[in-house]
Prior knowledge:
Arc Repressor Mutant, subunit A; flat; alpha+beta; single chain; 498 residues; BirA Bifunctional Protein, domain 2
Amino acid sequence: MLVLREAERNVLEALERLGGEATLEELAASLSLPSSSVHPLSRLLEEKQLVEVLEESEEEVTLTEEGRRYAEKGLPETRLVKLLKEEGALPVEDLAKLSGNVLSREEIPVAVSWAKRRGWISFARDKDGRAVCSLVTEGRAPEEELLRELLKKRLKGRELEERREQLEVLLRRKLVEKTRRRLFRVKMTEQGRKALSQALVAVTRLTSDLIRTGRWREVVLQEYDVSSQPPKLYPGKKHPYVEFLSELKDILMAMGFVEVEGPYVEFEFWNFDVLFQAQNHPAREVHDSFQVVDLSREIDAPSSLIERVKEVHETGGDTGSLGWRYEWRLENASRRVLRSQTTAVSVRYLAEHKTPPIKVFTLGKVFRPDVIDARHSLEFMQLDGIVGDHGIALKHLLGVLKEIALRLGFEDIRFKPSYFPFTEPSVEGFVKHPKLGWIECLGAGLFRPEVLKPLDIDFPVIAWGIGVDRLAMIRLGINDIRELHTLDLQKLREWEVL
């Protein structure tokens, strides 16, 4: 025995009322339902061979934006004729001033061209030699009526064939456009007619009344496939990498740090010299930093600071160091580079904030020439932080770094002694990637006196720079750093929210 759902039976009944055949729109209107709801019901009935769904297409014409404007106001040439009828012959140069709200400045050439082409106007010279526009006859544009009709409804099928000549004019003027529209016709089959009288209607809801009266034994209950999966929903969410960066900021702020920012295009003075990196250091060669040309060369730092940095580089100044023992050149320090380390932001902050305690971080892009591979990129995010106060030492630095790692969920972290030009003692930090093994992700240490003394800082400062992208690779389960910025929609949908 054939069993129908109530909604399916309603479609068959509506189709019978409409004579056994109707368009999808007619059927939807009869049921007071949207076409989007009736279409899948029609397809279900088609699978049961109770209806046929016939797909057709038809040509229809709609107004363009310009065509809609002309349909409301009239064609420009018609409005020009009306103006000349009221005002009389007009010098061409005065048309723009006298037309006022009748014609826009852009519509005047269109109006003149079409009115002249139709023989409605003529031109002559007056006694002053000016071109004068005169009305010849008050014509009528047959396609204007078609424009007004299109304002009220779409024309299709036979209606278009009857107005083909007018339509071609409007198409050439780009006042209308043709489209093809898909149509669905639903036709009841002989089996469908029999089903109306013979099929049972399934009950889709087991109500308390059916249970109480025992009528549930007499009705046909709708079967449901409980093993079928519901449709997947993909709600909007942040890019996983952006989410990781936000989490990193939240962790630092929860630990009492304040975020600071600095420029991408930096003076070598702040990027290298203040950090006690010699001007002949390999990191300052073109292969390790991006040089920026044709920019201002005046360093945004007090002359006294520039002089103290120069002295430290050449002789060590009053730091107890011998310095680098070379001739420091202002022109080298004045060059501009894309910052290669966010530590430049940290020392800029120290130059303006000399009272402890200091506890700040910066999270931003840095740029270094490199060979792009699974672990290296030309630009990457770096987290730089400093803590300055009396009595602070290396143990505090290691404690801060370990706390950040643990809050990010990295339990395998280790340190080893290292060397950096601007910190002493210095350490490197590594975290473990399940596939790539131990990955170097940070450099840290205590700022050397050669960095702090020129800045007039008389207390120790711990500092670190973390390669955020490498941490993100581990956290997000990525083996290739280039996948951090992926736009693959399917990958982004499947990525778990952090």
